[in-house]
Amino acid sequence: MTRRRRKICIIVNSRANYGRVKSVMRAVTEHPDLQLQLIIGASALLYRFGNVRDHIASDGFEAQATVHSIVEGETPTTMAKSTGMAIIELATQFENLKPDVVLTVADRFETLATAVAASYMNIPLAHTQGGEVTGSIDESVRHAVTKLAHIHFPATRQAADYLVRMGEDPKTVHFTGCPSIDLIAGLDLTLPADIFTRYHGVGAALDPGKPYLVVLQHPVTTEYGQGFAQINETLRAVEKLGMQTAWLWPNVDAGSDDVSKGLRMYREREQPSWLHLYRNFPPEDYVRLINHAACIVGNSSSGLREGAFMGIPVVNVGTRQQGREHGQNVAYAGYDGAAIEAAIRKQIAHGRYPSSIMFGTGDAGRKIADILATATFQIQKRLAYV
């Protein structure tokens, strides 16, 4: 008789989300005791946010379901409505697929929807990247998901300690490292000669043989209404350097339209000879892109995670990653063009930093799959120190 494999349902909701969970998807697929159930939803289905679904398919993963849940407009109201829509749609899919475990990633509003739907349906919930400290609404969402989750896969030892101090049962907290590091370990990091033309975008032609910046700055939801002014400060700083720049569009969070508007207006007005705007890069090529950058600028956690492992100079702008663990490769600047410019110049002059393994060594996906194959779950939770 064939042994029944445990069904692990993973939801991919965004371009960053896919990079954070791809190695887990691969490890689950290859594990003899596990079966992957893949749901693709939210901005991962939208063309203007990179159409991640195409990259997932080209990597050989087959989705069992798709969930359209984004109420467009990129305001706090639409974020709340999108969360509610996702809860409704995911509940239907969970009822159809009947997963044994649902795995959710990090701290986005779609992650909260996944956690609410699964926990109310008495489905064991696994959570990666819990216990971390950051700015914005992400902090609240991350800790809310922690309290709904039944098993935890933190990316750092400090985060694991924080989870236990939050009242989670130590037996459910497994330090595995961050799955995004798995993409780097063993990857050929050679920069493809056509990296700047392969993914189209708009703007000036960039030369991969010359120094370049990578900029990725998302809106900060708790600073809604300030995104236009904030992105203009970063533009002013990068303009002063005049270095060719690959700039990625922001995510779907509230305020995204303000950030995008600032980028479009600047490009149309100035027609800069150094700027090219991109919607998305697949995870492996994104890693190659940032590995060869003179500096990463903005507020993406990839500068702190992957950047630390590869020793890439980073300038983190503003409050979105405030308080997050980071390596010595990260410098901080507020929303001031002059300060951002000075920080970038200093980081470029410094060059590469020593590699840090604070976010893991590249085997998180395998560890997570092995634990999910054998773990037992207690649906009824309580504070471990009570």
General description of the model:
This protein has 386 residues and is α/β, with parallel strands linked by helices. It has two domains: 6-185 and 361-374, Glycogen Phosphorylase B (Rossmann fold, 3-Layer(aba) Sandwich); 195-350, Glycogen Phosphorylase B (Rossmann fold, 3-Layer(aba) Sandwich), CATH 3.40.50. It has 14 helices and 13 strands. The strands form two sheets. A seven-stranded mixed sheet has the order 7-10-9-8-11-12-13, with helices on one face. Helix 9 (227-241) links the parallel strand 8 and strand 9. The longest helix is centred in the N-terminal third of the chain and has 22 residues, at 76-97. The chain is globular. The mean pLDDT is 95.
| Whole-number count of domains | 2
Could you give me the name of the CATH homologous superfamily of the largest domain?
A: Glycogen Phosphorylase B
Q: Total number of β-strand segments?
A: 13
From N to C, what is the helix and strand string? EHEHEHEHEHEHHHEEHEHEHEHEEHH
CATH architecture of the largest domain: 3-Layer(aba) Sandwich
Strand order of the largest sheet: 7-10-9-8-11-12-13
Termini gap: 44 Å
CATH top level label of the largest domain: Alpha Beta
Please give the radius of gyration in angstroms: 20 Å
Task: Tell me, briefly, the overall form.
Answer: globular
Oligomer: single chain
Mean pLDDT: 95
As a percent range, the share of strand residues is: 5-15%
Structural class: alpha/beta
The number of distinct helices, counting runs of at least 4 residues, comes to 14
Instruction: Characterize the main sheet.
Output: 7 strands, mixed
Stated plainly, the CATH topology of the largest domain is called Rossmann fold
